[in-house]
């Protein structure tokens, strides 16, 4: 008993003393994601003891998720996705692939393969509601991605695509594409899609000015830049605007 | 020794698994995937070595009574414990060091093959910082030092090796889970905060030492964080070392 | 007597072990008081469980007294200096079986802080002296019981101690080995060492000891020189010596005619020991 009290008192004292140091060295993001999983005390928490094997375990969990995906078990798929990203939150692939499964596959599972057109039939309120609901769920999933991944263009690009294609929210899609453009290594097609979204949203002049500015930065020797295509599009939009400069 | 070799071989085999199980690799860079296997072997098998070696070196001496002729010599119990802890930690450091070297070798061979095949440098986010691998290994040594000291505390008190081993592994699991459990309580009902706060005060957070991402080119090291972790490990190792010495000092032989 | 240097002094030494039942304890050593002078052989004798090993452990600082004190040349057993002057032979070979005899000696010598060169010389000297020269590089785990006992003596002597504490040195050793132990103890005394010898095998040690103490249930029942202890009590017992067979028979016949009892010669210390233990047990039951 005396030993227990000595241990308790000493541990508490040291715990208080090292608390500031602990805050200094802690990287809380993955801890928060792992702890945030619902009903995961049995699996997520126990997998936390794996240490360095967590990333390996995350891959295996993702493969297991695809096992559930085959049978279209929504809850199990979501749970395993959460578990995998909690175990390895730095895997960009998990975030992008997971968001696509939620936004693209899950609405179809809900209405059935034969009736997937309902999702885009504006007269079918129920079908549209399913598409919007899953689109928003995919965005919420992406919002949990760690800050380190925000330096890359893929996450805002994926968000922009969901806003555009699943939610029909062009303003937010443009904002997200704009964010993706600011990241380093952003591919050339992001700029072209960004300009098209501006045009589609009625901001034609803005699109014209942007493309002209963008064209000036394009290299001549990189085929993926599609410089002639951009020049052609500038000319087309210019014609619409009655501009020829 | 046999267990040490068995775990070492298992660790190296696990590392080799990283090279040959690329079909399970989803999205992360190939080198990163291999490194994950190596890091996993260091943390998982390293923890087993730390617990078993410490119990064997401290409680094993008590159980086999080989401690009697030792303590009958002019050796204090504190010195005995310190010697045993240095021995246990040395064993752990050797184990982690050998796995780290095996990992660096595997990564270097694979990186050379990839560069030779593609003819270009590897993308910065997928490239390996070898210093980072060594840093990861060093942080594991720090973590395992804390675990060895906690196990020494239980070994000094134990009356059976089963108890000492069980408590060592229990401390390891609680230490690894501590951050998650506390966060989970914090995210739940506010009334549980006192429980979570209490737990976070009495149990060291061993997950702090898992610097997995720091080994890659994309993440730069924070020197302050490393110094902080060393300090953190030092404080807890000292606490449990002193508690173990106190228990051993009052133990009857 | 007052000027004699006391190597070991025990003053009211008591050891209680608490039992599982709250408030109850077992008294292993009960107010033990004795002195062992320098350069003597003291036999601490008693049956199993009489408190001999507990007393030794308190002398070595391995166990703390519940009351009273023990001292080695006036020093506490916890002190480094006291323990550097003691060589200890445990009651069983508690040695690391994965080391060779030479490595084990080196390990203990290093703990004693002996300089490397001197230590190496001493190791060889001791191992040769104890007949282990051919086995010194073999793992201790492969040694026979007798070899382990001899290795035990060698390790106890590696620091050239002033006091040797031998816990059951002849237990499990064959008669030849026991005789060797006897010769060795005598040689230690000649070298000026003090020997504390614990045993329950009285016949093997009684000729070696200058003084003995008889322990039972932690209590010292008797202590002193063997001849003094045996001289106490039965004055009517006579020792017959220097007669031929015919004369001896005449004495026996005479004694029997007068109603006397004649019995063959017996081990007197063992007799004394049994009598003391029996009386002590009877007294205990009476209380």
From TrEMBL, chain C:
Assigned keywords, A-Z:
ATP-binding, Nucleotide-binding, Transport
**ABC transporter domain location, by residue?**
8-242
Please name the Gene3D superfamilies in this protein's record: P-loop containing nucleotide triphosphate hydrolases
Q: Which Pfam families match?
A: ABC_tran
GO molecular function terms listed in the Swiss-Prot or TrEMBL record: ATP binding; ATP hydrolysis activity
What highest taxon heads this organism's lineage?
Bacteria
User: What protein family is recorded?
Assistant: Belongs to the ABC transporter superfamily.
Under what name is this protein listed?
ABC transporter ATP-binding protein
In its UniProt entry, the species of origin is given as Pelagicoccus mobilis
């Amino acid at each position: 008993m005396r030993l227990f009290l000595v241990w308790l008192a000493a541990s508490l004292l040291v715990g208080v003393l090292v608390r500031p140091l602990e805050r200094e060295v802690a990287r809380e993001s993955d801890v928060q994601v792992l702890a945030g999983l619902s009903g995961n005390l049995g699996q997520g928490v126990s997998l936390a003891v794996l240490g360095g094997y967590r990333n390996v375990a995350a891959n295996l969990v993702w493969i297991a998720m695809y096992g559930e995906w085959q049978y279209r078990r929504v809850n199990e798929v979501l749970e395993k996705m959460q578990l995998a990203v909690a175990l390895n939150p730095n895997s960009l692939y998990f975030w992008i692939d997971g968001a696509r499964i939620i936004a693209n596959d899950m609405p179809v599972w809900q209405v059935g393969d034969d009736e997937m057109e309902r999702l885009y039939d504006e007269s079918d309120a129920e079908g549209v509601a399913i598409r919007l609901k899953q689109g928003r769920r995919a965005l919420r999933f992406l919002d949990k991605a760690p800050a380190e991944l925000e330096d890359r263009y893929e996450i805002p690009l994926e968000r922009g695509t969901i806003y555009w294609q699943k939610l029909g929210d062009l303003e937010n899609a443009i904002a997200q594409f704009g964010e993706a453009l600011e990241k380093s290594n952003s591919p050339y097609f992001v700029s072209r899609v960004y300009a098209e979204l501006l045009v589609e949203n009625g901001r034609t002049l803005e699109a014209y000015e942007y493309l002209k500015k963008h064209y000036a930065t394009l290299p001549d020797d990189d085929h993926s830049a599609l410089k002639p295509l951009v020049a052609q599009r500038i000319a087309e939009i210019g014609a619409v605007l009655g501009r020829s400069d | 020794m046999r267990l040490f070799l068995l775990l070492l071989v298992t660790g190296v085999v696990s590392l080799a698994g990283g090279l040959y199980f690329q079909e399970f690799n989803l999205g992360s860079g190939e080198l990163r995937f291999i490194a994950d296997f190596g890091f996993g072997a260091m943390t998982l098998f390293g923890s087993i070595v730390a617990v078993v070696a410490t119990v064997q070196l401290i409680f094993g001496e008590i159980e086999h009574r080989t401690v009697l002729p030792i303590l009958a010599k002019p050796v204090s119990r504190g010195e005995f414990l310190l010697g045993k802890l240095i021995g246990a930690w040395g064993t752990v450091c050797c184990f982690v060091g050998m796995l780290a070297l095996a990992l660096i070798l595997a990564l270097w061979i694979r990186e050379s093959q990839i560069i030779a095949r593609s003819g270009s440098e590897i993308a910065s986010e997928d490239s390996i910082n070898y210093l980072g691998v060594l840093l990861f290994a060093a942080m594991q040594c720090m973590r395992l030092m804390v675990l060895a000291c906690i196990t020494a505390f239980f070994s000094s008190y134990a009356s059976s090796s089963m108890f000492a081993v069980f408590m060592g592994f229990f401390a390891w699991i609680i230490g690894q889970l501590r951050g998650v459990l506390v966060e989970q309580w914090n995210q739940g009902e506010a009334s549980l905060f006192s429980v979570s706060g209490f737990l976070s005060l009495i149990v060291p957070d061993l997950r702090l030492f898992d610097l997995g991402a720091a080994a890659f080119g994309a993440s730069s090291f924070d020197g302050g964080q490393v110094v902080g972790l060393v300090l953190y490990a030092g404080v807890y190792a000292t606490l449990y070392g002193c508690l173990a010495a106190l228990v051993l000092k009052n133990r009857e032989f | 007597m007052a000027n004699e240097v006391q190597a070991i002094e025990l003053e009211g030494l008591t050891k209680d072990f608490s039992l599982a039942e709250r408030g109850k304890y077992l008294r292993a050593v009960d107010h033990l008081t004795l002195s062992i002078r320098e350069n003597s052989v003291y036999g601490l004798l008693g049956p199993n469980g009489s408190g001999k090993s507990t007393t030794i452990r308190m002398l070595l600082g391995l166990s703390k007294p519940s009351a009273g004190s023990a001292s080695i040349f006036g020093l506490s057993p916890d002190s480094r200096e006291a323990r550097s002057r003691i060589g200890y032979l445990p009651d069983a070979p508690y040695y690391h079986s994965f080391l060779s005899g030479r490595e084990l000696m080196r390990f203990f010598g290093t703990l004693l802080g002996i300089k490397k060169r001197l230590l190496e010389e001493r190791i060889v000297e001791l191992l040769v002296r104890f007949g282990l020269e051919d086995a010194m590089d073999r793992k201790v785990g492969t040694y026979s019981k007798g070899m382990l006992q001899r290795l035990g003596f060698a390790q106890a002597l590696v620091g050239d101690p002033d006091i040797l504490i031998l816990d059951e040195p002849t237990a499990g050793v064959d008669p030849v080995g026991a005789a060797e132990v006897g010769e060795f103890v005598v040689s230690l005394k000649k070298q000026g060492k003090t020997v504390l010898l614990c045993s329950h095998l009285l016949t093997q040690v009684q000729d070696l000891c200058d003084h003995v103490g008889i322990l039972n249930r932690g209590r010292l029942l008797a202590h002193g020189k063997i001849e003094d202890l045996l001289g106490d009590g039965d004055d009517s017992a006579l020792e017959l010596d220097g007669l031929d067979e015919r004369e001896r028979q005449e004495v026996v016949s005479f004694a029997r005619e007068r109603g006397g009892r004649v019995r063959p010669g017996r081990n007197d210390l063992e007799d004394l020991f049994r009598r003391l233990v029996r009386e002590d047990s009877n007294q205990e039951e009476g209380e």
